[in-house]
Design brief:
- It is a single chain.
- Among the domains are: 114 residues, Beta-Lactamase (2-Layer Sandwich); 156 residues, Reverse transcriptase/Diguanylate cyclase domain (Alpha-Beta Plaits, 2-Layer Sandwich); 270 residues, TIM Barrel.
- It has 22 helices and 27 strands.
- The protein is α+β, with helices and mostly antiparallel strands.
């Protein structure tokens, strides 16, 4: 019974599968027939265009011959003119004899007033130059000579090519050569002869040349010559500057007509039309389609199920072995086999591996999640493979990185061109269910040289990663090639990374510490806040600049835990200040965009404040301008929570990022810090300082307090006092200080900072308490 049920189940499955596959097969058969016709049509198009291009060469030779003859006419006219200039005065000379001697068709002598006083054509005598006539330009120019293009004579109506030559008395003469002979040669005889030769050696339905006025100048069918094309479909094809074609029904016969524009030295002279009989091609399509249908239906219908099943199984196995499930891209195993195959074959062509990283991955991942990123990566890969003109293969690597194998390039310049091309297509807006994103990428490149063919794929990928890691935000380019120097740089970064991880494991380590630079009130010279600045001393390399170790932390995904440590240390110092009676002085902490966009930021921040026994009235957060522009709504929600806790929010580095006044109005911030780029010129009287004054006025108009950082000279302090800047920060007042030195500064500030600032206040505002200042942290 069980066996019978299983048998029936198998039969039903087989019947059902057979029916489904039969439908699929019929559909595939339809696609096959359509593909045969489409392929044949495409091949006909390619062959017709190729044929037409070949014939266009004969037409181009005639155009070149015309240009050569025109050049000879120019030379002939110039020689005749120079001969007459050497001859001297022409008045009283027999111009007809001179024209015969010089083998030109006409000579006209003009007096200084522009009137013809002698001519080989009596009818021209007495004619005078007028403003709109072509001769007028030379008459007024003062040039010694000029040869113009072929034009129609105003009096005779015949085509001539004229040259003009100025005499010493201010008059001039013109030498003309008839252009009728060359025009007749080019317009009819030469092309007709060329078409005749082509007609003898090729079985074409029609071949003709159509000029820019849509007149048939030459044709293998003499009856078509001199006819003007009026068919709208043909006129549309003639209007295009690229090769194109279309199938026409000509007297019941299918003819494929190809239209090739003819250019010579950048100028379009007309269009060559080549017509070919489509009957044989149509007959071939019918025969192949019929044969294919008969063979497929009669021979393969019985075994299609097994073939499809086997194919499906094989495909699944192959995809599991060689493709990444998440991205659907070929994996590193396939890349390794391709490289090994190239080694075995001994192919000499050059190879390189390019590691591409999405710069926006982390922010987008935090905001939209993993599935959204998968969709974006698929779009990126599709653009690279479909829109780049280079022959490349794309492979999976990590979630935010993928590999591109480039083969057969000539030089590094081509690899650089590849990165620019990929950058171009990547930065096109991508529309998803979450909105519109613009993807920015950077590239690490390593070449697989013949002399280093023994390198493993792991080594190659390591080199590409090293090259990628050397690119910083300050670099003007978004690509880097691997070198030994970058290898040493990687070694240094790996050491720093391990030491930073040790700091993360134990935030009491003294190698990572904070220094504090005061923010001083311009109203009374008091210290209202300290900005906490991180410092790191490596055991192996000594003190590492903040820009460098922050960059390494970002590359190694350590910026979030490092940011938490900085906040923790800042809270500890704020607690000490409060315990010493300086609870009104805040500690300012720089918060990166990646930190504030993380889902855990608010929760972690509030937990740290609770653990270190610090409330919001003791803290200030400085947020980089660039981190706000693309995430205003999300950030405003978090900023509002922080402000409700009493934390002051300052917009850092204002003026050098990409935010606008529109974005600034929408941000929930309390303070604006002007970047030192705008403070530096203040002491020099630079006209650009007007911008700084406008920023101060704008911020105050919006109810924001204004901080100027990077104040290092008296002149800068003068300017800021004059324009009522609220707070100042910089080496003129104090360098960043370690904790004990900062405490001493609090004691000494009435004797150091206060007099210096108050003197400026007295000079520009007549004493303390000026209404232009607004240092108030009450939220």
């Amino acid at each position: 019974m069980i066996r019978s049920k299983i048998s029936k189940t198998h039969i039903k499955l087989f019947v059902l599968s057979s029916l489904v596959l039969t439908v699929i097969f019929l559909f595939l058969g339809f696609l096959m027939l359509s593909s045969i016709e489409r392929y044949a049509f495409q091949e006909k198009t390619r062959s017709s265009v190729s044929t037409a291009k070949a014939y266009s060469y004969s037409v181009s030779k005639n155009i070149a011959a015309r240009d050569a003859l025109i050049a000879l006419l120019d030379e002939k006219i110039e020689i005749a003119g120079e001969t007459l200039l050497i001859h001297g005065g022409l008045a009283g000379e027999d111009l007809t004899d001179l024209a015969k001697d010089l083998k030109v068709d006409t000579i006209d002598l003009y007096n200084p007033e522009g009137e013809v006083i002698a001519s080989t054509l009596p009818g021209n005598i007495g004619w005078k130059v007028y403003e709109e006539h072509p001769v007028y330009s030379f008459y007024k120019s003062g040039d010694r000579s000029f040869v113009e293009e072929i034009r129609t004579n105003t009096i005779s109506g015949l085509d001539y090519k004229y040259g003009y030559f100025r005499l010493q008395d201010g008059g001039f003469f013109q030498v003309g050569v008839s252009a009728e002979t060359i025009n007749e040669f080019i317009s009819s005889f030469a092309l007709m002869e060329a078409f005749g030769e082509i007609k003898k050696s090729n079985a074409l339905t029609c071949l003709c040349f159509i000029d820019e006025s849509h007149e048939v100048v030459a044709s293998t069918d003499p009856e078509n010559v001199s006819k003007v094309v009026t068919d709208p479909q043909v006129l549309e094809l003639l209007s295009k500057d690229v090769e194109t074609g279309k199938l026409f029904d000509v007297n019941g016969q299918e003819v494929y007509q190809t239209y090739v524009p003819i250019f010579h030295e950048g100028e379009r002279y007309g269009t060559l039309m080549v017509g070919e009989d489509f009957t044989s091609t149509r007959r071939l399509i019918d025969r192949v389609s019929y044969a294919g249908t008969v063979v497929m239906v009669s021979l393969y219908a019985g075994i299609i199920f097994l073939l499809l099943s086997t194919q499906r199984k094989n495909k699944e196995l192959l995809e599991a072995a060689y493709f990444d499930e998440a991205s659907e891209l070929p994996n590193q195993r396939l890349l390794r086999e391709i490289l090994e195959e190239r080694k075995r074959d001994g192919e000499p062509k050059k190879q390189a591996v390019v590691l591409i990283q999405s710069l926006e991955y982390k922010n987008l991942h935090h905001e939209y999640g993993n599935e959204h990123l998968k969709d974006l990566v698929k779009v990126m890969v599709k653009r690279i493979t479909e829109e780049c003109r280079f022959n490349v293969q794309v492979f999976s690597y990590t979630e935010d990185r993928f590999l591109v194998l480039v083969e057969g390039y000539e030089s590094k310049n081509e690899l650089v061109a590849l990165t620019k091309e990929i950058t171009k297509v990547m930065e096109l807006p991508v529309r998803t269910t979450k909105g519109i994103d613009i993807l920015k990428v950077k590239f690490g490149i390593t070449e697989i040289r013949p002399d280093s063919a023994k390198r493993s794929l792991d080594r190659i990928l390591k080199e590409a990663s090293v090259a990628l890691s050397t690119i910083s935000k300050a670099d003007k380019v978004n690509y880097a090639f691997f070198s030994e120097l970058s290898g040493r740089k990687l070694q240094m970064e790996e050491v720093v990374e391990q030491e930073l991880r040790s700091v993360i494991a134990d935030d009491y380590m003294t190698s990572f510490y904070l220094v504090f630079q005061p923010l001083v009130s311009m109203e009374d010279g008091s210290i209202v806040a300290f900005e906490a600045l991180s410092r790191f001393v490596s055991k192996k390399y000594g003190e590492i600049p903040p820009v460098k170790f922050i960059e390494i932390a970002e590359k190694k995904d350590l910026i979030l835990p490092i940011g938490k440590i900085i906040l923790t240390k800042a809270c500890r110092y704020a607690k000490k200040l409060k315990d010493k009676g300086y609870g009104h002085i805040r500690v300012s902490v720089n918060i990166s965009g990646l930190q504030i966009l993380s889902e855990e930021f608010l929760n972690d921040t509030l937990k740290t404040m609770e653990k270190e026994q610090v409330d919001g009235s003791s803290l200030m957060f400085e947020i980089s301008e660039n981190s706000l522009v693309d995430h205003v709504d999300t950030l405003n929600e978090k900023l509002q929570v922080l402000r409700e806790k009493g934390i002051v929010i300052s917009l850092d580095n204002f003026g050098v990022g990409s935010s606008s006044l529109h974005h600034l109005k929408g941000l929930r911030v309390d303070m604006l810090k002007i970047d030192k780029l705008f403070i530096g010129p203040l002491a020099k009287g630079d006209p650009s300082t007007l911008i700084t004054k406008d920023i101060i006025n704008m911020a105050k108009g919006m109810g924001l307090q204004v901080v100027a950082e990077g104040v290092e000279e008296e002149g800068q302090l003068d300017y800021l006092a004059k324009h009522s800047c609220d707070l100042v920060q910089g080496y003129l007042l104090s360098a960043p200080l370690e904790e004990e030195e900062a405490n001493l500064l609090l004691i000494a500030s009435p004797y150091t900072l206060w007099p210096k600032v108050m003197e400026k206040n007295r000079i520009y505002h007549g004493g303390s308490g000026h209404e232009g200042y607004d240092v108030n942290f009450d939220l």
